[in-house]
Amino acid sequence: MQIHFVGRDHDKIVDFENNISIREALTMANVQPSTVIVSLDDNILPHSTLIKSDITLKVTTVSSGG
User: Fold this and answer.
1) CB 55 within 8 A of CB 40
2) Pairing state of beta strands 2-7 and 55-61?
3) CATH code for position 32
4) Cα–Cα distance measured from residue 59 to residue 10, given in angstroms and rounded to the nearest whole number
């Protein structure tokens, strides 16, 4: 199965066999989970969300600073 992460700064695919959390998949895609928000159909998903099938998720980079 695959998760496709898409966004302005991201276009990565992660292959997995069993259920996987968004956090684990981001890490496998070399994306720091603390730097992004993941959404599906304009709904923000917690990084603990388990993915069980092929899916495309939007990744938005979060920036902070002074």
Assistant:
1) yes
2) parallel
3) 3.10.20.30
4) 7
Give me the domain span that covers residue 54: 2-61
Residue 21: alpha-carbon gap to chain centroid: 9
Q: How many C-beta neighbours within 10 Å does residue 23 have? A: 16
> How do residues 16-45 score in pLDDT, each as one tens digit?
999 999 999 999 999 999 999 999 999 999
Query: 58, exposed or middle or buried, with CB in 10 Å at 0-12, 13-18, 19+?
Result: buried
Burial of 40 (0-12, 13-18, 19+ CB in 10 A): middle
Could you tell me if 28 and 14 are in contact, meaning their C-beta atoms sit under 8 angstroms apart? yes
Per the structure, the count of domains in the chain is: 1
